[in-house]
Amino acid sequence: MVIIDGHHLTLAEVVAVAREGEEVRLAPAARxxxxxxxxxxxEILAAGKPxxxxxTGFGIFAExxxxxxxxxxxxxxxxLSHAVGTGAALPTEVVRAAMLIRANTLAIGYSxxxxxxxxxxxxxxxxxxxxxxxxxxxxxxxGDLAPLAHLGLVMTTDAADRKxxxxxxxxxxxxxxxxxxxxxxxxxxxxxxxxxxxxxxxGATFSAxxxxxxxxxxxxxxxxxxxxxxxxxxALLGVSHAFDERIHRARxxxxxxxxxxRVRQLTRGSTLVDAGGRVQDAYSLxxxxxxxxxxxxxxxxVAQVVQREINAVTDNPxxxxxxxxxxGGNFHGEPLAMAADFLSIAMSEVAAISERRIFRxxxxxxxYGLPSMLVDSPAAAGLxxxxxxxxxxxxxxxxxxxxxxxxxxxxxxxxxGEQEDHNANAMTAARHARQVADNTAHVLTVEVxxxxxxxxxxxxxxxxxxxxxxxxxxxxxxRAAVPYRGGDAWWGPEIARVRKVLAEPGWVRAVLQQxxxxxASERGTGTLFPSSx
Length: 533
Known about the structure:
A three-stranded antiparallel beta sheet has the order 4-7-8. Strands 1-2 form a two-stranded parallel ribbon. Helices cover 56% and strands 7% of the residues. A hairpin with a 2-residue loop joins strand 7 and strand 8 (174-177). The chain folds into two domains: 2-203, Fumarase/aspartase (N-terminal domain) (Fumarase C, Chain B, domain 1, Orthogonal Bundle), CATH 1.10.275.10; 210-314 and 331-411 and 425-522, Fumarase C, Chain A, domain 2 (Up-down Bundle), CATH 1.20.200.10. By secondary structure, the protein is mainly alpha-helical. Helix 9 packs antiparallel against helix 13 and helix 9 packs parallel to helix 14. The protein has 19 helices and eleven strands. It has helices spanning 11-20, 28-47, 71-82, 92-107, 115-126, 145-155, 178-185, 196-201, 205-235, 245-251, 254-266, 283-286, 288-309, 334-362, 388-404, 426-461, 469-481, 491-503, 505-522; strands at residues 2-4, 24-26, 86-89, 129-131, 134-136, 156-157, 168-171, 174-177, 190-191, 318-321, 324-326.
């Protein structure tokens, strides 16, 4: 069970709730803060002092006063008028992640809302009511206004309680009106009070949800990238000197040092590495620690940004006391937008260098004696195309990534009559980052799949050859899922099966554990990298 208090939500918990349906509860201390914040809003209303969004209009209408008896209608009007998103519905896991993050930020207690708002969000998560949220239409600056308003349609209502105004939701696998879904799940819809409509919609919450899931996935696939690199290094009889610890320590970048160390660990005991007799390799092998290490450091930065954001107050105004309401800009998605762009750039480069290794593995002029396109034998060339086309797919995805990785955060258009004159474009950046991470996962799968076939053929040439401690496990588990086939076959379903294997944390864990165990047993006995152990 995940307990939210506004301060300690982790990326792992976001993933657990979004994808695995982990139950969520509100911490008692958070409930007390929510009740206190709500009392402060009531005192502000009673005092009659103008405070943005409580007794004024929104955006360009911020100077228009709203009477206290219209405050509830103001909140509901905000939901109705702002739910204008478009495009395909976001995946269920993204919506669930956003609901959790929104509940957590409200639980901090500076938004002035009642506990029932957070409890309703948590009940929807626990009973699997998932609002249908269009993926497009957010500028990511005054919060993800349109997506969050679509969420508000489902969870809130007014005196009219019209089904037509309740949006759409999924419940028990069926699409129905928000009103019907909430009724079926036994969750009362909330009649909003002052400030609550603004609190629901203010904050780049869907941007944070998209980026949180993308970061979680990217971290896993960066490790797969190091395993794929190691398999390709062995299949191409690569040169170990490029991974010597002294080289990487001399440049001081921790990501670079970590990737090189991982390759040394995975290939420990290999007789294929250095068997080519070359002085140095092409960049896709030799500089992989520099490229993939930089991506690791980028990932670490982005993960820190997301970790802060999912525990951040992103509302406006913030209520710090009964006479202390401050208007600011915590809803602005720029930190997320820049971080999402950075993740897109990093993962795009990981895919790009992986594709170059795929190309070398299948090119008979570059793969050091393996058959062109990795056909079963030179005599089979022509009749069989081998792995020609998987490289096409990888190249296509790399090109797509290079377009998607163009920075979204540098693009802005003004809204709301120039009141909101600089926007972050955060949700678009986060959607692109998620797509880039997904594309990169497929490119890395093609590399592992191709490297496994190259190793089959290399070991046929060198029957006494031995794989490294970690790469041997990676190769064996791939072959357990997809046995080697000599002639042409429908490679697509096989690649899909391999991707499913690689996506499992257990696959990565087994590979790394074996590599670490071998390192412990061989330490001090002389290894492939004697200077670095």
